[in-house]
Amino acid sequence: MPELVFFSGTMDCGKSTLALQIEHNRSTRGLQGMIYTRNDRAGEGKLSSRLGLVTDSVEAGEGFDFYAHIVAHLSAGGRADYVIADEAQFLEPDQIDQLARIVDDLELDVFAFGITTDFRTKLFPGSQRLVELADRIEVLQVEALCWCGARATHNARTVGGQMVVEGAQVVVGDVNQPETVVGYEVLCRRHHRRRLTSAAARAAALSPDVLPVDPAPVNGTPAAG
């Protein structure tokens, strides 16, 4: 039976790499897929991985109708054996409904990839709708790591290396960006709650000690050298 599958995880855990791997595995077996994405780091009409892999895709912008696009493609004599939708967190709830309709009415597998929560730990509307409708939810097993080495579970937005918790929900950026621009960093829950990014942790480690290095003399006795 065809399924709507939601592959979720934090940034930097390999979602787009897996999407490209699924495309490769199926295309080498003679299957043809329709690939969609939105706000990819490589630009419009691209699905890219941080490993350097990239392929062409259809840009699913605001108001894009997945179901109508697939039906038009098939009606024109095109072929579609499955659908891949990357950056699905940016999609509108109605667009997720369209993906579900593709599974139910056209009997095609749909593989959606996206992060679940934003930099404020709030659900993206598209991800929320996927959680509500998906036949199966797969949490990626390639764990992204916080700077402390613990499993990263939250996405943090940074400006100048400092975590911010206000602003528009969608601001396109990436991890490992220069500290002077808007970027993102994956953190464990503890450090996300404390707003302690890697840059902030380095700054704290380099700050002067609270206690003096050489204690003051006691009862007139000089401190040991």
UniProtKB/TrEMBL annotation:
<feature type="binding site">
    <location>
        <position position="184"/>
    </location>
    <ligand>
        <name>substrate</name>
    </ligand>
</feature>
<keyword id="KW-0067">ATP-binding</keyword>
<protein>
    <recommendedName>
        <fullName>Thymidine kinase</fullName>
        <ecNumber>2.7.1.21</ecNumber>
    </recommendedName>
</protein>
<dbReference type="GO" id="GO:0005829">
    <property type="term" value="C:cytosol"/>
</dbReference>
<keyword id="KW-0418">Kinase</keyword>
<feature type="active site" description="Proton acceptor">
    <location>
        <position position="87"/>
    </location>
</feature>
<dbReference type="Pfam" id="PF00265">
    <property type="entry name" value="TK"/>
</dbReference>
<comment type="similarity">
    <text>Belongs to the thymidine kinase family.</text>
</comment>
<keyword id="KW-0547">Nucleotide-binding</keyword>
<dbReference type="InterPro" id="IPR027417">
    <property type="entry name" value="P-loop_NTPase"/>
</dbReference>
<dbReference type="InterPro" id="IPR001267">
    <property type="entry name" value="Thymidine_kinase"/>
</dbReference>
<dbReference type="GO" id="GO:0005524">
    <property type="term" value="F:ATP binding"/>
</dbReference>
<keyword id="KW-0808">Transferase</keyword>
<dbReference type="GO" id="GO:0046104">
    <property type="term" value="P:thymidine metabolic process"/>
</dbReference>
<dbReference type="GO" id="GO:0071897">
    <property type="term" value="P:DNA biosynthetic process"/>
</dbReference>
<feature type="binding site">
    <location>
        <begin position="170"/>
        <end position="173"/>
    </location>
    <ligand>
        <name>substrate</name>
    </ligand>
</feature>
<keyword id="KW-0237">DNA synthesis</keyword>
<dbReference type="GO" id="GO:0004797">
    <property type="term" value="F:thymidine kinase activity"/>
</dbReference>
